[in-house]
Amino acid sequence: MKTMDTFDIYGLVAPVFTPLDEDGEIKFDVIPIYAKYLAKENITGVLVGGTTGEFASFNTQERKELVDAWLKVAGPYKLLNLKVIVQVGGASLPDVITMAQHAEERKVDAIMTLPELYFRPKTAEHLVSYLEVVSKAAPSLPILYYHFPMMTGVNLNIAEFFTLACRRIPNFMGLKADLHDATQLADQLKCGKLTYIANHMLGPSALMGHDSSIATVNNIFPSLVKDIVELTKCGEVDKAKKLQDKLNSMVNGISCNGDFVPCMKAAMEVVTGIKVGPPRMPQKPLNEPDKKRVEDILKMYKY
Length: 303
Hints:
8 strands, alpha/beta, globular
């Protein structure tokens, strides 16, 4: 088991898109190209099956196949040396356990889980009990909590949850959350535990000491994100602010054209040339005028 002393997934992690064709079928042949691009950009690792990856639109078998496809090119023994975190939650508990067991068998670097999404936990104890069950299905792997109350409807006292999880779950290593929640945990992030920042506000987060992130922008603008974080850490706050303002303007300009994932998939193709395709139903792809507006925003900022 990775212990508190050996957990080492720091820096910029990309919550990867799922490449799809026009019929919504997974394009597995794009994943090696995608992985090489991320490795070249010095991304630390990938999160497979997050919101950006549209986990809720895939069945358990498809999700396992996606994990295997990423492990073929980005596993711990591959030349690309990208860490692989697998998001196992968002389904019925038996399926979540199946996903966790698959991750355990494949020896991924860590798992992450959402809370139960229908019979939602109402107390920190209830949430920790759920994570305990999931963690026991992958006992050799670090487990992270995916805190996303806007989508899950679960917004408990995060400090109380964190304290209890650290006490009861031996392989609990932290969570993915926004800066507001990260600041509430600052005095508890000891012995290798951390909060991954979930959105694009990476300069302010680095200024507060949170320089690891799992943000969609890490896919599309890795160099810009790295510069923001490094300049902030070096005390070049004015320079970092100018770049953060640029990132904010691009994200706002892109995302105002539709739902977040379809907009960001369109931006990913424009910036990188990697064919991640449209989203799968129930999300809808951007129409041509909206795609053109995304392209125009990126051209304006020379991307």
